[in-house]
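Worked example 3. Consider a protein that binds zinc ion.
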Amino acid sequence: MKIGAFVEIVNYAVVWERDGGTCGICGLPADPTLWELDHVVPLALGGLHEYANVQVSHRTCNRSKGAKAA
Ligand SMILES: [Zn+2]
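Given these inputs, the predicted complex is written out as structure tokens:
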């Protein structure tokens, strides 16, 4: 059981290395200076800020996904 809404300290560099610099939404390479951290399950929908729920994403992909979810 998880207690409360504990979240990990997510290191962007670790996520970037894990995902190989590839956008998890469209599957294309992302720009190492312009990428954003995307929450696979949006925080608004109960997703957690933890490694298992984050991925590299293009800023544009992340924004368009957020618009659809909202
Ligand atoms: Zn993308």
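Take a moment to read the result before moving on. The beta strands are 36-39, 54-57. The chain has a mean pLDDT of 87.
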